[in-house]
Amino acid sequence: MMKRFVAATLVCISINSFASIQKPTSEDVLLKKFSQTYKTNQDYDNLKKETLALKSKAVPSLIKVMKDGNYPDKNRWMATFLLGKIMGDKSAPFISKFTKHPSWVMRMASLKTLLALKQKQYVSSYQELLKDNSMLVRSQALSNIRELKISEAAPHVWAMLYDKRNYHSNSKDQKHKRMDIIKNVVKTVGELQFKKATNPLLTMIQKDRYNDIFEELNYALSQITGVKPTKNDKEAVRLFWKSKEVSFKTI
Question: Which residues are CB-contacts of 211 (< 8 A; sequence separation ≥ 6)?
Fold first, then answer.
């Protein structure tokens, strides 16, 4: 009788142990959900809410998703942002490593998350990504510098004017047309008050070939010098800056 009781007990213990082993953990469940591709924004919102509800328990899963290229790009992007949301500033050193990731999506995600966390200390990373092969990444690096007001990066921003990748090449006449990013470069140079740009900006605003960025040139000069034309007419604006050349070209 005793032998039967012991045997039955061992069987119950074995069954319970097997069941506990087979029971999926919250990490398993989360990783499975991050492995899926969703069709609606509501699905992504639900995943976001579920992840945030787990708080620090979600961190190991988020790190795995970020590191593993088998997960959908959009989910890896979300994992990066959510890691920053959950861990705050403590996540920045880890997230900053992804600014050098082979995938432009992860470089972009890291930049956006670092901006959301207001991380100004990764200046060298932002500056380096101003020369990234991806236009989207270059634009985001520029946004980080501009929004975080990183004035020491101004020379690197100015250098973007000479990067051929920021221009459309016309195969017919071999001319290069400025992309929209150039407008943001000029405005950022002004907002960062890069005084060394004053002389070339004063020269550029007088030339018709820069008409496509005329407003941005005017804005940048006003930001750097602290004065601005009272009239919006193009010729009046040019005359205004012409009259200021002597005083401001000594800056």
Answer: 234
Residue 11's pLDDT band (boundaries 50, 70, 90)?
A: very low
Q: Which two tokens stand for residue 123?
A: 């200046």
What helix, strand, coil percent values describe the chain, rounded to 5? Answer: 75, 0, 25
Distance CA 225, CA 62 (A): 47
Report d(CA 107, CA 96) in Å as an integer: 9
Contact 164, 146 (CB under 8 A): no
Q: How far apart are CA 240 and CA 13, in angstroms?
A: 89
pLDDT in tens, 157-206: 999 999 999 998 765 655 678 999 999 999 999 999 999 999 999 999 99
> CA angle 228-190-164, nearest 5°?
130
pLDDT in tens, 62-81: 999 999 999 999 999 999 99
Q: Which residues partner with 167 through β-bridges?
A: 178
Strand partners, 169: 176
Residue 101 region by backbone torsions, left for phi larger than 0, else alpha for psi between -120 and 50, else beta: beta
